[in-house]
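User: Predict the complex with magnesium ion.
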Amino acid sequence: MDWSLIFSNALAAMVGLETVVFALAAIGLNVHFGYTGLLNFGQAAFLAVAGYGLAISVANFGFSTGAGVVIGLTGAVVLALLLGAPTLRLRADYLAIVTIAAAEIVRLVFRSVSLAEYTGGSDGQGRFSEGFYSINPIAIGRYGLGPLDFDERQTWVLSVGWTLVGLSCLLVFLLMRSPWGRVLKAIREDEDAVRSLGKNVYFYKLQSLVLGGVLGCLAGFMTAWGNTVVQPDNFSTETTFYAYTIVILGGAARVLGPVVGAAIFWVLLSLTDNILNQAKNAGYISDAILTGFQVGQVRLMLVGLGLMLLMIFRPQGLLGDRRELALDAR
Amino acid sequence: MPADLTKADPAVPDRTKAGTPRKDAARQAFAGVEAVPGSAKPDPILVVDGVTRRFGGLTAVDVAHVEVQRGSITALIGPNGAGKSTFFNLLTGFDKPDVGTWTFNGASLSGVPSHKVARRGMVRTFQLTKALSRLTVMQNMLLGATGQKGENFLRAIFPMTWRAQEKANTLRAEELLVRFRLDAKRNDFAGTMSGGQRKLLEMARALMVGPEMVMLDEPMAGVNPALTQSLLTHVKSLREEGMTVLFVEHDMDMVRDISDWVLVMAQGKVIAEGPPEQIMANEAVIDAYLGGHHDAPLQDEEQAAPR
Ligand SMILES: Nc1ncnc2c1ncn2[C@@H]1O[C@H](COP(=O)(O)OP(=O)(O)OP(=O)(O)O)[C@@H](O)[C@H]1O
Ligand SMILES: [Mg+2]
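Assistant: Here is the predicted structure with magnesium ion placed in the model:
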C-alpha cells in the first residue's frame, strides 16, 4: 500500500474544494443552529439559490459575474425572509418542517424539465464561470506546498474560497462577542426570557436566518465556480445533513468549529476511501468480504462509526466546551 | 440581618409605625380607598377592564376591573390554579385575552407584543425561572439593559461604537449583583446556579431593564429564609426607588410584611382586595384560600371548641 499517496490525498482533501464549500455552509448553519438555536434543515436551498442565481443570470441573461453574485445573494436573502417570516413567530419545529420541504422544492424546481431551458435540468447549467476565471491573477503553472499540487485554476478557486472562509469566521467572531450576538445566544437559551427583557425576538431570529443563509450561499458560489457547473443533485438534503454533522463535529457555537469540522470530515472520507481501495487492490481484502462496488458504502459506514465514537467520547465536538454541554442535562 | 428577622415576625404588631417615607406615602394613598373588588385608586399606574381568558371550557381569568396604585407594593394571592400566572401573562403580552382592555400609564396595552410591554416599563419575571443557562451571570444581566447600540447588527461589528455603553452597563450590573449577593458568581454559567440563586438573578436582570413597574411571579418560592429576608428588603427598596411592584406569593407572613395592598383571586376572578390585615380576616378569602389554618387565632378557636 502506498501510504504517502494516502496521506497526500488526505492533505489535499483537507484544503480542497469540498472542505471550503462545506465549511462555508456549516458556518452559516452554525449561526442558525449553534448560536440562535434555529432548526434550519434546508441549508442546501441557500446554496442552490445562490449557485443557480449566479449561473442562470450569467449563462442565460449575459450578466457579469459581479451582477450574478449580487443576484445570488439577493436570492438567498429573499429565501431567508420567505422561510422565516411566516414561521419564526411559531414554535421551533415549524421552521424545521418548512425549511426541509422548501429545500426539496427548490431542488426539484431547478431539476424540472419545463425549466430545463434555463437550468439545464438534471444535467445542470454550465457556461457561466468564464468571468470568474478570466479575472484570475495567478499565472499559468503549478502551485503547491509539500505534497499539495494544484494548477492555476484550482489555486484561484481555493484562494478565493479560503479567503471567504476567513472573512466569514472573522464576521461571526466580531458579531458573536457583541451585544447583538448575546441576544442570539440568549434566544437559543430561552426566547420568552429575552422577550420579557424588551428584545424583539422575531426580528433577531430573522436577522440570524438571513445572515446564516447569506454565509451559506457563499458555499453555493464556490460549488458553482469550483465545478464550473451547477447541478441540482449538488444541493440535496444530504448536503444539509453533512453540514449539520460538521457543525456538531467541530463544536456548535464555536467560531472555528465548522472549519475544523469540515476539514476533518473530508479527511476522514478521503482516508477511508483511499485505504479501502488500496487494500482491495493489493489483495488484502478478498471479494468474498468486500467487492469493489461496496467500498463506497463501507467507507461511509466507517465514517459514521467514527462520528458515533466521537459523540460518545467527546459529545461537545472537537472545539466545544464540556462544561456548557453538562448544563443541558439540568 | 437580625433586625430584618424580627421585622418579619408576624407577632410584632404594628410595623407601619417604623415605616419609610415611601411606605407611609403608599399607605396614605390607600387611606381613602374602599376595600372592595375593583375599587378605584387615587393614582393608578395599571387599570384592567373586563379581561377574560378561556382555555376550552375553563375560564382561567375573568377580571372585571382592577387598578394598581402607583408606587405601591401590591400582592396578588389566591389558591393554585386561580389564574394568577395567566393574568400576568395576559397583562405582559405573553398570552392574549379573549376580551378585555388594560392601560399602563394611561396608554392601552391590549395587543401590544411582550417586548414592547417591557420597553414601556412593565417588566415581569416567571414562576418557573428562566435563567439563560449557557450565558454567564454577567451576560444575563447585560442582556437586560435597554437601548444598547451594540444590539444593532451593523454597529455590532464595530466595538468602538458600543464599548463605552457596555462598560457603563457592566458597572450598573455589578452594583445590582452586589445588592443581590451574586457578585461572586458573575463569571459562572447561569445554568450552574441553584434554584434560589436563579430567582435572584432573574429579579436582578429584570431590574436591569429599568422598569417603572415590576411584576414578580412567586419571587420567594424555593428561596431559603435568610435569603428571603434579603429579597424582601430588595422588594421594599424597589418601592423606595419609586417603582410599583405587583407580586404573586403564597406565604402569608411575607404578604403581610411587605405589601401595602392585597388582591385576592379565586377561579379567575378578583374576589377581594384591601390592606393586608383586613384581607387576612376576610371571610370570603378564608373560605377560598386561607382555610382554617392560616392564623394563630383561628387555630386557638378550633382548639377551644373541639368537635
Ligand atoms: N396553556 C394552558 N392551557 C390550558 N389551561 C391552562 C393553561 N394555562 C393555565 N391553564 C389553566 O388555567 C388555570 C389558571 O392557571 P394559572 O397558572 O394562572 O394559576 P396560578 O394562579 O398561577 O396557580 P399557582 O399558584 O399554582 O401558580 C389553571 O386551572 C390551569 O390549569
Ligand atoms: Mg402561578
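The domain at 3-325 of chain A is CATH 1.10.3470 (ABC transporter involved in vitamin B12 uptake, BtuC).
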